[in-house]
């Protein structure tokens, strides 16, 4: 069934996706990378933290700012 939404929209806002995320300083990642990738083969680097404001989505065709969450999509806990 077609929803009319893009694959990217589904990836960013659909529910039932549970992942563990971490942010590491570059030096800490260099120190842990070999061990982490060996122990957790599905580990993936998904982004980076940079100086500045806003949240950006990078893609093969460049980057663009993400709009603030508008209350649509995803699961709202506690409802």
Explained architecture:
It is a single chain. This protein is α+β, with helices and mostly antiparallel strands and 79 residues long. It has two helices and two strands; from the N terminus they run ααββ. The protein has a domain at 18-47. The chain has helices at residues 7-13, 26-39; strands at 56-59, 62-65. A two-stranded antiparallel ribbon has the order 1-2. A hairpin with a 2-residue loop joins strand 1 and strand 2. The radius of gyration is 16 Å and the shape is extended. The protein starts with 6 loop residues before the first helix and ends in a 14-residue tail after the last strand. The relative contact order is 0.17.
In brief:
By secondary structure, this protein is α+β, with helices and mostly antiparallel strands. 27% of the residues lie in helices and 10% in strands. The protein has a domain at 18-47.
Low-confidence spans:
none
Distance between the termini: 27 Å
Largest sheet composition: 2 strands, antiparallel
Number of helices: 2
Structural class: alpha+beta
Coarse shape: extended
> Biggest sheet, strands in spatial order?
1-2
Mean pLDDT: 80
Oligomer: single chain
Helical amount among residues, as a percent range? Answer: 25-40%
Number of strands: 2
How much of the polypeptide forms β-strand, as a percent range? 5-15%
């Amino acid at each position: 069934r077609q929803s009319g939404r893009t694959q990217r929209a589904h990836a960013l806002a659909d529910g039932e996706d549970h992942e563990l995320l971490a942010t590491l300083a570059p030096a800490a990642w260099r120190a842990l990378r070999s061990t982490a990738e060996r122990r957790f083969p599905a580990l993936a680097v998904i982004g980076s933290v940079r100086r500045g404001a806003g949240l950006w989505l990078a893609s093969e065709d460049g980057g663009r700012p993400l709009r603030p969450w508008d209350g649509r999509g995803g699961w709202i806990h506690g409802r």
